[in-house]
Amino acid sequence: MISVQGLTKSYHDKKVLADINFEIGQGEIAGLVGPNGVGKTTLLSCMMGLIKADSGTVTMADELFTKTDMYKKVGFMQDNSVLYPHLTGYDHLSYVAYAQNLSLDAVEEVSKHVGNDSYLYQKVGEYSLGMKQHLLFASAIIHKPKVLLLDEPFNGLDPTSLIRIREIIRELAAQGTTVLLSSHNLNELDRMTRHIYFLKDGEIIYRDLADHHNFSYVLTVTKQPVGQQYEDIQVEVINDTQFIVDKANLNQAISLLNQDDNPIVDIERTQFSSENLYREIYQEV
């Protein structure tokens, strides 16, 4: 579980975090949302002790986060600025394994699970953004943490990698890991959780999306649907073979796809929809 109580942080005269309070239960996934520069990374870094908060307490896995051995229970995925371009992915993961008192077998195991085993021995300076994301995620979960903090884990991922990372996060939560996930990808958050913490003006605004029923559906097809008829039903394209349509237009979308001889591979209902809440809270169109 995660419990943050009275957390504050200021830089000079600017208060970035103002009396932050929230709790996330064991095995729950929660989203942390807000525009760039609002303080999401600062909050995660304060929770991890990488930035010293001005006041407040952080409890994770039932212990106050004040001891270095807490890192054995908590995983943190930061941005790729923490990687060393002259080292290989194996170098990074073997160092984390050593720090966690794990055997090097854990490096091979987590790499196969995440999907970075095919380029594990390349230097990170040769990595694409998506490859770096794989490595950062693997580093965060190699020790099977009880609490997992993720800062923009979906950046730069192709659809195959995104699906794999999403499923691993769900697996960890099902096994009891508590996950706090900061992301701009509202569609992915909608597919993973109903618990969203919006950060605005240094304060947390919690919303349970189950109270805001506005279901939509993600359709996976064999080719990209094109034409005015799809625009008329307000299809939102995710990529070449996936798009989102709301419940009211689902049957019409299926009918159009059948007419176009575009077989449907999968239909998945998003659990909830956070976009309208985002617009409301941040007053953005």
UniProtKB/TrEMBL annotation:
InterPro entries: AAA+_ATPase, ABC_transporter-like_ATP-bd, P-loop_NTPase. Coiled coil: none annotated. The keyword Lipid metabolism does not apply. Gene3D superfamilies: P-loop containing nucleotide triphosphate hydrolases (3.40.50.300). Residues 2-226 form the ABC transporter domain. Keywords: ATP-binding, Nucleotide-binding, Transport. It comes from the Bacteria. Pfam families: ABC_tran. One of its GO terms (molecular function) is ATP hydrolysis activity. Belongs to the ABC transporter superfamily. This is Putative ABC transporter ATP-binding protein. It comes from Amphibacillus xylanus (strain ATCC 51415 / DSM 6626 / JCM 7361 / LMG 17667 / NBRC 15112 / Ep01).
